[in-house]
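pinned: reference chain
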Amino acid sequence: MIQIKDKRFEVSMTEAEIKQRVCELAQQMSHELEDKNPLFLAVLNGAFIFAADLMREMTIPCEISFVKLASYQGITSTGTVQEVIGINEDLTGRTVVIIEDIVESGLTIKRMMEQLGTRNPASVQVCTLFFKPDCLKVDLKLDYVAFSISNDFIVGYGLDYNQQGRGLKDLYTLTK
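pinned: its structure tokens
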């Protein structure tokens, strides 16, 4: 058990489990995206650790850039997505892979896909570390999902609670 601010969390997944699955995902993506030189767009802040680990395991040429979208306050989504930092790369004819830490409602990814679609990419795919299928509010195709999880609040491995806990190596779940 750990305490972050006013909340208590318990380990729900170890760093080794996460890294093993990230390695498997990178192998799958390297095979499926071979000869495409994909551009990964990692969504900050939460996806930076996942994106770094994924990139180190890729065996094909690929590029990475970062975007920052915000929709969270505390432990709940505000339901409003605000773009903070945009995309500067030319996406025309590119295979683009959005790298997200967690997909819950799907609103962030949907908005991002709509914005990217106006920039003429060859394709836009989505890769997420965690997916909460019970929370999905929009029709959304996720191409790569490391873990489908229940609707619990989680922290660690890049995910935070009020900007704390991102550096935890394991994944923790809020205790009831």
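why pinned: The mean pLDDT is 92. The longest helix spans residues 15-32.
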